[in-house]
Amino acid sequence: MIDQSFDQIFTTFEEISNNFKRTNQYFDILYDSLSAVFINKTPFSEDISAVTKTSGIVARTFDGTWKEIALDDFSNLNIIVEKLPKVVNKGEEIAEFEGWKLNKELKTKINPKDIPIEEKLKKIRDISDFIQKYDKRIVMCQIKYYETEITRIFVNNEGSQLRQVIPRLRLFIMPIVKEGMTIDFDYSVIEGEVGFEILDELTDTKLEQIANNSLDMLKAKIPPAGKFTVIVDPGMGGTIAHESFGHGLEADQVLRGRSYLKDKLNKKVASEVCVICDVPDMGNQLGSYFFDDEGIKAGKNVLVEHGILKNFIYDRKSASLLNTTPQGNGRRESYAHVVQPRMSNTYFEPGDYDIEEMISEIKEGVMCNHSYFGMEDPIGGGMQCTSKKGYLIENGEKTKILKSIALSGYVLDVLENIDAISNDATTLHGGTCGKGHADKVPVSDGGSYIRIKEVLISPG
Description:
Distance between the termini: 50 Å
Shape: globular
Largest sheet: 8 strands, mixed
Low-confidence stretches: none
């Protein structure tokens, strides 16, 4: 099947799908293909991992519970029809949607697959050499390069025929600096559904800024501890939206009674200035796609509307059980993993404040920049997220640069204490999200600048 055209795969999948009548049972089949290159460079090692292509198929039906079969051997696809059960009068147990068709292949200016590994490694070495030679206080530079191309071909017995080919690239740069006994760092990430052309953004001026961001941390002070008014940047706001809040909205956890938000639908969970959304199709963001792994078209899921919880994050099954419409959040890491409700691009929508105005109104507070870590507690509703650096705010002005800052508390208290969101354009940052310790999928999160009254902070 690897050598077949997508039209041939559509035809084969349609023939298999015809064995399962929609009035009796829901059925779908997914082809999943991945190619990837990972390079991790430090001054001491260069680790390279390349997957030319790995692929498989997963087919499933619903007869009250999901029954599915995954294959990486395409020689006998009849086993799908032989192994999956045939039932009658179970079709209404999963909500039916109108079938649709899509064939979308994202094109990049420079396809990373056309660039030899040696050339990629040379580019990464050049970046590393430039940064390490920039200042003698830069003792090490770690660079992680990761590219993937994912193909998903989907057919179901509702008439859907879907194909998407999505390239993703992410470059992480971390200069580590040392002066006397002080060691610290900052980091920079560029990423998106883009090609090798994204590395053209790394001009000498940009690399100098990345180096200086780390060097600035050598003069950073220990942040205060206690309750302060805090402004968080889009990265930190995204961590609150995703890690601290979003995981509690995943509908499978809600249905299991394992979410502190299970009884909060249509109730106030945040201040009125808060609008939080999850949108799978947002241009070239790392977490974007056109349809999920259940064939649902990417929509806009308004999670919180002016402080009111309006929706959870659904897959087909949870949406059916809760009598609502999924917006494209049924996701698999690969054909060898199960579908679960997962976030995509999760963010706070902009408000109507100017960021300078937000700062000017604070007599004593802190700004948190550059999200570095977040931890969720979807059962209890606690949260902790950490910025890599920050700034002290005194009498309406940013003053001293601060080291890592931890922000913690009860999520709903934090959301309720948001009193201003800036009118800056939405900025998202990408990464990988796991559910538990596994099932990793690409995601993005962000927003604008957010001001939170009376939130607990401490050195991170």
